[in-house]
Amino acid sequence: MAATKPLSPHRPRIDSPVRARCFCCSPPRLMIERAAADKNPLQTVRDANKVGLRLSDFQPRSMLRARLTRIERPRFPVIDVHTHLSWMSRTRNGVSVGEDMTWFATPDDLLPVMEHRGIRTMVNLTGGIGSGLEAAIARFDRVAPGRFLTMTEPSFEYVAESDYPQRQADALAHAKRAGACGLKLLKTLGLYLRERVDEGARLTIDDARFDSMWATCADLGLPIFIHSADPAAFFLPTDRHNERYEELAHHPDWSFHGEGFPSYDELIAARDRVIARHPRTTFVLMHVGSQAEDLDAISACLDRFPNVHVDISARVGELGRQPRASRRFFERHQDRILFGTDAVPAPWGDEVPQQLFGDALYEIYYRFLETEDEYFDYAPADIPPQGRWSIYGIGLPDAILRKVYHDNAARLLGLSA
């Protein structure tokens, strides 16, 4: 047994604790004795007036002194392949129908931001069908040639008709002649659309009646921009374990948890079956394919299907919290990633700050792609709208930046270099 070293006569005695402790965390009792009786650090009492702070009122300000790099103009011209400048006015249980359109902006509203943020072209994905599509093209593409492109949408209103496959093919041919640059599918297919639009069994993404639509797009050279599923958290209970609890509390209609909806995995699997059946058709999977939380999975999809691209719209919040994995993803698939924001002009975009068209939105995207800044906001909002975290820049080299910002989309949409 080791000998005990006698105490120095000049040092006060400190009773040995039952378990050794480091004094940087818990002070020795000598220090406690000198402190005021109501400041005992080992007997902290919770402040009942503060522990009940509502989550919605909690807006902490980071004390991290991190670099802030302003990127007001991108290093290369930008093609934003994912914006919403219009919307079909009528819906049936979430399914857009009819040819009437609602306009979110005019070219004059948008061009000033485009000019000083280096945006060459904005693609309006939700351009409608029929006369609505023609009006959208006249409103944007014809007024500012080269600055705006418009896509058409499916004619789901006629899905219950026996001749729907041919009617859909004819509508796509009309859209191509009118000047549409592609076909956009909202998450309607798989989540909302039913046998009789809003009645009957829910239709799956890989339902055979849509094969004519996918094949016709290949014949016409129209890329398909498809939004399937949604963030994985939207398919889980909206409870204390859900990292997107606040977002779902503000937008309860975004929750797809429960027996009334297919599972996240079922939607992704059905999407992949369609892609496999139509290798001649070009698919652009919106929002990193709704798989930004699982980059290995979407990377495997890109490896498996050479006819697939992705855009990064409304997902820098996911990509930026895993910067090293994201950088590897961009390096591996640099020829098949498109720049997109999901931008919606005010006031329509006010409730979704991660999509609100304006200077602040584009600066965040540019900062994420071009810098190695750390721990910054992914949306211009006091409270992070998609989840309480911050993001990190991935500092892409010029060769990759040029492809993501411009060249990949220009090649896909048939634009000049």
What does the secondary structure layout of this molecule look like, with pairings?
Blueprint: H1 29-34, E1 78-83, E2 86-92, E3 95-103, H2 107-116, E4 119-124, H3 130-141, E5 148-150, H4 164-178, E6 183-185, H5 188-191, H6 211-220, E7 224-226, H7 245-250, H8 264-277, E8 283-285, H9 286-289, H10 295-304, E9 308-311, H11 316-319, H12 323-332, E10 337-338, H13 359-370, H14 398-413
Parallel strand pairs: 1-4, 4-5, 6-7, 7-8, 8-9, 9-10
Antiparallel strand pairs: 2-3
Helix pairs in contact: 3-4, 4-6
Main beta-sheet strand count, sense and barrel state: 5 strands, parallel
Q: Give the fraction of residues assigned to helices.
A: 25-40%
- Indicate the multimeric state: single chain
Radius of gyration from the alpha-carbon trace, in angstroms? 27 Å
Strand content: 5-15%
Query: What is the count of DSSP helices, taking H or I runs of 4+ residues?
Result: 14
Kindly report the spatial arrangement of strands forming the biggest sheet. Answer: 6-7-8-9-10
Pick out the low-confidence regions: 1-21, 26-37
Shape: globular
General description of the model:
The protein is α/β, with parallel strands linked by helices. It has 14 helices and ten strands. It has helices at residues 29-34, 107-116, 130-141, 164-178, 188-191, 211-220, 245-250, 264-277, 286-289, 295-304, 316-319, 323-332, 359-370, 398-413, and strands at residues 78-83, 86-92, 95-103, 119-124, 148-150, 183-185, 224-226, 283-285, 308-311, 337-338. Strands 6-7-8-9-10 form a five-stranded parallel β-sheet. Helix 3 (130-141) links the parallel strand 4 (119-124) and strand 5 (148-150). Helix 3 packs parallel to helix 4 and helix 4 (164-178) packs parallel to helix 6 (211-220). The radius of gyration is 27 Å and the shape is globular. The termini are far apart. The relative contact order is 0.12.
